[in-house]
Amino acid sequence: MAATIDKLRPELLEISDAEFERRQAELEMAARERRRRAEVAAKEALAAEAATRIERVVADIKWLHDNDLLPKRVAEGFSRGDGMFVPGMILRAPSAESLVPRADKPKRKRRTREEVDAARAAGEPARRRR
Q1: Is 0.85 surpassed by the pTM of this model?
Q2: Is the pLDDT of residue 128 over 70?
Q3: C-alpha pair distances (Å), 74 with each of 19, 50, 82, 118
Q4: Can you tell me the distance from the alpha carbon of 80 to that of 84, in angstroms, rounded to the nearest whole number?
Q5: Which of 3, 51, 87, 110 would disulfide-bridge 93, Cβ 3.0–4.6 Å?
Q6: Burial class (CB in 10 A: 0-12, 13-18, 19+), 61
Q7: Which residues pair with 85 in a beta bridge?
Q8: Does 74 score more than 70 pLDDT?
Q9: Are the beta carbons of 53 and 45 closer than 8 angstroms?
Q10: Are the C-beta atoms of residues 85 and 79 closer than 8 Å to each other?
């Protein structure tokens, strides 16, 4: 059975080019979102396992700290800037959403040393101001 567009969706031949491109872009966005959601769903079990393991690690670190068995350098690594010991704030469980990279998320572009030097030579500030 040979299917042609005339029989399947003849209305697609009647719409404008702009409408056709808009629908095509919408379908591509929907396909990307469906793939991303499937990837997130696949990472749910991994994120749940990570959460239980991190809870155990945090509890063990607290126990070691409470019994003065945690080395000072390690305790400093799990402390805030003011010296308060808070391993639960430092070590957090990832979400399934965070385990899937976002393709549409803009990435920060860092200036190279040459760009900074050229900006300084031109009299511009070395850092960009927002």
Answers
A1: no
A2: no
A3: 60, 21, 16, 42
A4: 5
A5: 51
A6: buried
A7: 79
A8: yes
A9: no
A10: yes
As a whole number of Å, the end-to-end CA separation of the chain is 61
- Tracing tokens 């070590």 back to the chain, one arrives at 91
Structure tokens at 21: 């491109």
Q: Is the per-residue pLDDT at 129 higher than 80? A: no
Residue with tokens 């966005």: 29
**HEC readout, the chain:** CCCCHHHHCHHHHCCCHHHHHHHHHHHHHHHHHHHHHHHHHHHHHHHHHHHHHHHHHHHHHHHHHHCCCCCHHHHHHCECCCCCECHHHHCCCCCHHHHCCCCCCCCCCCCCHHHHHHHHHCCCCCCCCC
Question: Predicted confidence band at 110 (pLDDT cuts at 50, 70, 90)?
Answer: confident
